[in-house]
Design brief:
Elements lengths: L1 E3 L4 E8 L2 E9 H56 L2 E4 L2 E4 L8
Keywords: Coiled coil
Length: 103
């Protein structure tokens, strides 16, 4: 997206099959309109990118809060299971054999 040869005509660069191809748009009034349109599109993409980034940051903050709540839940569940006479063995909660069930 540039004016070539000192502003004589406007071209667009885009990738086709991994290679950069230049597309002639036009000179004069046509080139000026195309340049303005490309600038608007570029600005719109930048705004969308900023909105997406803000949304991702918000989701990351929410994920941290959910992870913290899950961690607290696991600690509370482990305390309750231990108090009920269970122990955690190889990823599984098991009742201890040597203790009687608290009544």
């Amino acid at each position: 997206m540039a004016w070539d040869h000192g502003g004589r005509y406007y071209t667009r660069s885009r990738k086709v099959n991994g290679r950069v191809m230049r597309e002639y748009v036009g000179g004069g009034e046509m080139g000026a309109m195309a340049a303005e349109l490309d600038a608007l599109r570029r600005e719109q993409r930048e705004q969308e990118r900023m909105l997406w980034k803000a949304e991702q940051e918000e989701l990351a903050m929410f994920d941290e809060q959910v992870a913290k709540c899950c961690e607290y839940g696991e600690v509370i569940a482990a305390a309750a299971m231990t108090a009920a006479g269970f122990h955690f063995h190889r990823g599984e909660w098991r009742r201890r054999r040597d203790q009687k069930c608290p009544s």
